[in-house]
Amino acid sequence: VYTDGLVERREEPLDRGLERLAQIASRARAGSLTEISDALLELVADDRHDDVALLTIGPRRPAEVFRRAFPADAHELATMRVELRSWLERSGLPSETQEDVVLACTEAATNAIEHAYIGRGGDVLIEAESEEGRLRVTVTDHGRWRHPRPDDSRGRGLDLVRAVIGDIDVERGEGGTTVRMRVGIP
Amino acid sequence: VSPTELATIAFEDAERATVVTIRGEVDLSNADRLLDELMARVGATPWLVVDLSGCSYLDSAGLRVIARIDVRCRDVGSGLRLVVDRGGSIDRVLAMTHMDEVLTVDRQLDDALVSTLQDVGGETPGGSEEGTVEP
């Protein structure tokens, strides 16, 4: 929805303006609402002599979801990273932050492998969901956490996760451990 | 190169140092192998130079390896130098864990090797008063 200031120019017929509008709109249609608005406002960037009001309306983009369960085995970690990286490439996160998320998920999964499933098999589940402006990541296992011995330097990976992600919440129960992380998408 | 690009290790002898070049990714799956390979080289030369500039991923499993190698080097009177790209992912991990404050980090392999030659009368391998690393 727009006012005539977007397409009307004094020195040319209205049809020319409508044509330009249609061209730009069809090129920008795949973008977000903000991107479409920005593209349409380019119409008057060089020649603004009237007020312009523009309203773009669209359905909320469905959340993109990553979900992968794998056996709690260190040899699964590298493949998980490859898949997570390729999903994160489309998330809109800066590449440095993408790698932070990869590190955080590997650390959480490493903890599950080392502490939750000692001597027993089990799965680790990684779920990520990106919505407008936010990425939520959850790493879940169904093992039983063993506290590292005091002289054991293992199990400190979560400190590293806290350093890179900041917004993290660890829930340990009888039924397993859930690590929840939230990252803003600029 | 496998699709997962797990680390490869190469060793080369320099004048006063053993240069260890680690490429690819280091995680829980290969950290123990890496530790064994590195431990076997500690003490063979006055310096151990670990070149991580070709390493694309390293997490707490790899940091544990570096910390343990550092302790062993100090025990036997050797020096440890790391080569890490400035601002890269490994540089950031070292900074976040404050390991960069206790380890000797160079940005270029050449710089590291020059330092291993100049230490006579200056820096003595393993002689520093810095504390040990706990990742």
Question: Could you explain how this protein is built, in words?
Answer:
- The complex is a heterodimer of chains A (186) and B (135).
- Chain A is α+β, with helices and mostly antiparallel strands and 186 residues long.
- Chain A has 5 helices and 5 strands, in the order ααβααββαββ.
- About 3% of the residues of chain A have low confidence.
- Chain B is an alpha/beta fold.
- In chain B, helix 3 links the parallel strand 5 and strand 6.
- In chain B, helix 1 runs parallel beside helix 2.
- The model of chain B has no long low-confidence stretch (mean pLDDT 87).
- Classes of the chains: A alpha+beta (186), B alpha/beta (135).
- Chains A and B meet through helix 3, helix 4 and helix 5 of A and helix 2 and helix 3 of B.
Structure at a glance:
The complex is a heterodimer of chains A (186) and B (135). Chain A has helices at residues 14-28, 33-41, 77-88, 95-116, 157-165, and strands at residues 64-71, 123-131, 134-141, 168-173, 176-184.
Key terms:
heterodimer; A: 186 residues; alpha+beta; rod-shaped; B: alpha/beta; 6-stranded mixed β-sheet; 24% strand; globular
Q: Tell me what portion of residues of chain A adopts beta-strand conformation.
A: 15-25%
State Rg of chain B: 14 Å
Shape of chain A: rod-shaped
Spans of chain A of at least 5 consecutive residues whose pLDDT stays below 50 are 150-154
**Number of beta-strand segments of chain B:** 6
Major sheet size, sense and barrel closure of chain A: 5 strands, antiparallel
Which class of secondary structure composition applies to the elements of chain A? alpha+beta
Q: What do the pLDDT scores of chain A average to?
A: 84
Helix content of chain A: 25-40%
Order of helices and strands of chain A: HHEHHEEHEE
Distance between the termini of chain A: 27 Å
